[in-house]
Amino acid sequence: MSNEREQWVSRIGFILAAAGSAIGLGNIWRFPHVTGTEGGAVFVLIYLITTLLIGYPLLNTEVSIGRKTQRNPVGAFKALAPNTPWWLVGALGVFTGFIILSYYSVVAGWAMSYTAQSLGGLYAPGTDYVDTFVGHISQVWEPILWHFLFMLITVGVIAAGVVKGIQRTVKILMPMLFILFVALIVRSLTLPGAGAGVAFYLQPDFSQVTGQTFLSAIAQAFFTLSLGMGALITYGSYLKQNEDVSVDSGWVVGLDTGIALLAGFAIFPAVFALGFDPDGGAGLAFMTLPAVFAEMPMGQLFGFLFFLLLSVAALTSAISLLEVVVAWVIDEHGWSRRTAAVVLGGLIFLLGIPSVLGFSAWSDITFQGMDILDTFDWFANSIFLPLGGLLTAIFAGYVWGNQKVMEEANCGKDRQFLCAWYAVSIKYIIPIAIAVVMVWGLYETFFG
Question: Which is nearest to 240 in space by CA: 7, 435, 440?
């Protein structure tokens, strides 16, 4: 079966695809609003440390597991630990990707809708953008339509295959994403008063640090790097044996982190320059920024570019999420790629409908005060992703063995990027850090 699997045609194809998996709503929608609510620069600093100490080692581990086995997450754990329950870790990754994509597609649909509206009269001074956003998500059929269109595009890419679909698409979208970012950053940094936003973003205030800051940083690293959801195991399974996993993983982490940091430079200087509150929470992209664009010279153009950027980034991540579940049924159950993409994409679309209706018909259904979409997001980011990462670290450190992971990642190269520090990190630092953060997050949610 492994001989029949497609492989990335080039090294850059894998790096762009894996970076595209990581670069998505987590960078452009989630990172700025978490940074704004968690104190700005001090959160950014903790996030960078978390990405280096936890994100990079785990990313190497997942890619190495995939490349070694040439299988989907479930099949990979079965191959490395046959006749044991460890395959359930892979199953958790597949399930997590399924859940995340269901509500991720809804948010991506909002971005596509705002992209279209940006071509019209969306940006007008004095408009109440809170009412505009609430009015949009409170509808039923329009958000469902945009959710459907986004999933349709995602299914089309996956159905075309690893090379003709995923690799060809990301080679177009990733450069486009960078160009859009440059345009937005130049406009934001040249606004009068932008310096206050730069200071908020770059000058840490350590009095703002709380336990929640660390929890948010680790959750952000997992979400944005696509850790714990099987995406990197799946993408790693299409890698050729002569690829240097540790170096490629470094490129992926660097590109993802770079885009997250650029998102801050595109958003915070403009927010401060025009007198808005950076503590806008999840509504920063859809309620605060449209008001910023309405006050900004050439705001309609830059509003269009921002939401187009958001849509493009969402698509590159959604592709990887759907590929996880599609690869599972292809490998384990023998489905054709096209059938798997259509059927599973359809099921994910249906699962996303409650997230749409949670703002309208089912608005009274809540969990700990959260609506349906936020509930799915809480379970994914507070339980499923960190649990998947925790179990993967334990598996790599104590079952498969960190020495085998290092051998696979380094793959006989002269540059030994993974060495003694990796063993300490994967066996001790990562499991302890994730466990503490998970327990803290659960305590804060239910008793805080």
Answer: 7
Mean of pLDDT values over 177-189: 82
CA distances from 86 to 81, 396, 429, 434 (A): 7, 11, 21, 19
Report whether 359 contacts 103 (CB < 8 A).
Answer: no
- Interval 99-125: pLDDT, tens: 999 999 999 999 999 999 988 878 887
Provide the sign of the torsion angle of the four alpha carbons 97, 98, 99, 101, taken in this order: positive
Please state, in angstroms and rounded to a whole number, the distance separating the CA atoms of residues 34 and 201: 12
Report how far residue 303's alpha carbon sits from residue 295's, in angstroms, rounded to the nearest whole number. 11
CB 103 within 8 A of CB 352: yes
Q: For 296-410, where are the alpha helices, taking DSSP H only? A: 299-333, 337-357, 372-379, 385-394, 402-410
* pLDDT score of 3 more than 50: no
Is residue 322 within 8 A of residue 345, CB to CB? The reply is: yes
> The whole model's pTM is what?
0.87
**Which amino acid, 175?**
P
In angstroms, the CA 426 to CA 394 distance is: 7
pLDDT in tens, 330-380: 999 999 999 999 999 999 999 999 999 887 655 666 556 678 888 888 888
Mean pLDDT of 68-97: 95
Name, in order, each residue with C-beta under 8 angstroms of 77's C-beta and a sequence gap of 6 or more.
Answer: 65, 86, 87, 88, 89, 90, 395
The encoded tokens of residue 346 equal: 């359809």
Rounded to an integer, what distance in angstroms lies between the CA atom of residue 275 and that of residue 236? 45
Say what the pLDDT of residue 282 is: 55
A 10 A CB-CB count for 304 gives 21
Choose among 346, 351, 345: nearest CA to 375: 351
Cα torsion angle, 413, 1, 396, 30, sign: positive
pLDDT in tens, 282-305: 566 787 778 878 887 788 888 888
pLDDT in tens, 254-277: 988 888 888 888 888 888 887 777
Handedness of CA 165, 168, 172, 174 (dihedral sign): positive
Fold of 2-446: Amino acid/polyamine transporter I (1.20.1740)
Quickly count: other Cβ atoms within 10 Å of residue 247's Cβ: 17
